[in-house]
Specification:
Distance between the termini: 11 Å
Radius of gyration: 22 Å
Protein name: Aspartate-semialdehyde dehydrogenase
Active site: 137 (acyl-thioester intermediate), 276 (proton acceptor)
Helix content: 25-40%
Bound molecules: L-homoserine
Keywords: Amino-acid biosynthesis, Diaminopimelate biosynthesis, Lysine biosynthesis, Methionine biosynthesis, NADP, Oxidoreductase, Threonine biosynthesis
Enzyme class: oxidoreductase
Shape: globular
CATH superfamily of the largest domain: Dihydrodipicolinate Reductase, domain 2
Strand order of the largest sheet: 5-2-1-6-7-9-8
Function: Catalyzes the NADPH-dependent formation of L-aspartate-semialdehyde (L-ASA) by the reductive dephosphorylation of L-aspartyl-4-phosphate.
CATH topology of the largest domain: Dihydrodipicolinate Reductase, domain 2
Number of helices: 12
Number of domains: 3
Order of helices and strands: EHEEEEHEHEEHEHEHHHEEHEHHEEH
Structural class: alpha/beta
Length: 371
């Protein structure tokens, strides 16, 4: 019998990407979907295979949720905080798949990224684990890029600088970034179309606009367009932001590492829309050739697209604008570091809403519906 799958938070940014991927892969033919809402019960749900799913169910109704074999939520951590333990306490034994970070580090949950940790997932399923959570997006994208090096147990430590898209902060932030860009353009649009104004005057006007009281700052608090923000998420009071803290702890949980691999990050918000980029310095535990490193990276999974370290291919293939909306994980700028033989640097980009959020959840759902 087809499993009943409850969808919560399917209208948001990650949820919509999830539904689109499921439509593309015909996943809805293999499940009995039920759509819930936290605010619009009774209203129409999404259109799937030309059918409107009418009468949205109440996402706070434990009795209705209990009827599901699997629940998949992209609603966020407040919802998970409110509902998850109530539902488990009601003796619900179904599978919970979650995009939010709330349950990630719990002992009875697994962080899912099956091209990297399918064995860990299968072992967990056999031991009766029922809670599966998507990882932080920079973590998934870094692991998809360098998975071969981790599975070959070659990594001693890595140091990462991230360049993270506005979408990682949420839909309202993407809109605010675009408003900021528009405000900057509007401040000088006339000057850009005549050749009279000097570039220094144009920069002066734009700078004045960024500092203007009316500049849109409701969500980011500070300008992102024409600037960057070198802090993401809350302060861990250790010198790290929580985004930086997640790098080491989520990676080691995904890999089920016996010994912690050290991962140190500096996470920075930039003005790309939905693709995160990462510049990574790796220390290997032995000296291997660049050719070998390249082969290990390429052979790990079919989504890696190795970009040779030259100007032309780098600027056309290794950028957020080249990758956006695709599952491709370009990996390039591979070179040995001046620091020493066991050190190399590499650059990678990935769509934050696909491999960084929705795709690992979709693939986990697929594993569960085939059980
Ligand atoms: N926390 C990430 C970010 C996104 O702010 O970019 C989700 O993993």
């Amino acid at each position: 019998m087809m499993k009943s799958v409850g969808f919560i938070g399917w209208r948001g940014m990650v949820g919509s990407v999830l539904l689109n991927r499921m439509r593309e892969e015909n996943d809805f033919l293999k499940i009995n979907p039920h759509f819930f809402s936290t605010s619009q019960l009774g209203q129409d749900g999404p259109i799937i295979n030309n059918i409107v799913f009418k009468n949205l169910k109440d996402a706070y109704n434990i009795d209705l949720l209990k009827e599901m074999d699997i629940i998949i939520t992209c609603q966020g951590s407040v919802y998970t905080d409110t509902i998850y333990s109530k539902l488990r306490k009601s003796n619900w034994k179904g599978y919970w798949i979650d995009a939010a970070s709330t349950l990630r580090m719990k002992n009875d949950s697994i962080i899912v990224l099956d091209p990297i940790n399918l064995k860990v997932i299968k072992k967990a399923l056999n031991s009766g684990i029922k809670t599966f959570v998507g990882s932080n997006c920079t973590v998934s994208l870094m692991l998809m890029a360098l998975g071969g090096l981790f599975s070959s147990k070659l990594v001693e430590w890595i140091s990462v600088s991230t360049y993270q898209a506005a979408s990682g902060a949420g839909a309202k932030h993407v809109i605010e970034l675009l408003k900021q860009m528009g405000a900057l353009y509007n401040a000088v649009s006339k000057d850009l179309s005549n050749n009279v104004c000097s570039i220094l005057d144009i920069i002066k006007k734009v700078t004045k606009k960024i500092q203007d009281d009316n500049f849109p700052l409701q969500y980011f608090s500070v300008p992102l367009a024409g600037s960057l923000i070198p802090w993401i998420d809350i302060d861990m009071k250790t010198g790290q932001s929580r985004e930086e803290w997640k790098g080491q702890f989520e990676t080691n949980k995904i890999l089920d590492s016996k010994n912690q691999i050290i991962i140190d990050e500096t996470c920075v918000r930039i003005s790309s829309i939905r693709c995160h980029s990462q510049s990574i310095l790796v220390k290997l535990n032995k000296n291997i050739s660049l050719k070998n490193i390249e082969e290990i990276i390429i052979n790990h999974n079919k989504w890696v697209d190795f970009v040779p370290n030259n100007i032309e291919e780098t600027i056309f293939k290794l950028t957020p604008s080249a990758v956006t909306g695709t599952l491709t994980i370009p990996v390039g700028r591979l070179r040995k570091s001046n620091i020493g033989d066991k050190y190399f640097s590499v650059f990678t980009v990935g769509d934050q809403l696909l491999w960084g959020a929705a795709e690992p959840l979709r693939r986990m759902l697929k594993l569960l519906i085939n059980i």
